[in-house]
Design brief:
It is a single chain. With 141 residues, the chain is an alpha/beta fold. It has one domain. It is built from six helices and five strands; from the N terminus they run βαβαβααββαα. β2, α2 and β3 form a beta-alpha-beta unit. The protein is globular, with a radius of gyration of 15 Å. The two termini are 27 Å apart.
Length: 141
């Protein structure tokens, strides 16, 4: 079975809890699962992201873990995802399931989707966030 992983956070400038949980997941899943193939979805254009890819992601690639890089600037990708409903399969190809390390999921035409919700602070402490963020978070969840 082919499993997709939305791994763009792995090349973020600053690592947060999402990234600190995603990197070990990508490192250890193929070690404990010797049957499935993994495809990592990443989207970046700028050289500093490419450098972080080489440092953080490239060492995790193997014959069963490959990276599929979409090179579309983030502003354009945001438009494509939200308004044109650009499916993640355009980059990943078909996967039986795609794992999202947070609630920011792509349009997906086929296969199951699994997401981790790390906290519900925008629900429980909405006053700590902008109204726009809370509305987007509620819609995503």
């Amino acid at each position: 079975m082919r499993i997709g992983i939305e791994a763009s956070n792995m090349v973020a400038e600053f690592l947060t809890g999402v990234e600190y949980s995603l990197i070990p997941l990508v490192r250890h899943l193929p070690r404990i699962d010797n049957r499935n193939e993994y495809r990592l979805y990443l989207n970046f254009v700028r050289p500093e992201y490419a450098a972080r890819f080489e440092a953080r992601v490239r060492p995790l690639l193997s014959d069963r873990v490959e990276a599929r890089i979409c090179r579309i600037p983030n502003r354009l990708m945001r438009f494509l995802r939200e308004w044109a409903r650009w499916p993640i399969e355009q980059t990943l190809g078909h996967c039986a399931v795609v794992y999202y390390p947070d609630v920011d999921m792509h349009t997906q035409l086929r296969g199951a989707r699994v997401a981790t919700i790390h906290d519900l602070m925008p629900f429980t402490h909405a006053d700590q966030y902008s109204e726009l963020y809370v509305a987007q978070f509620r819609r995503s969840v």
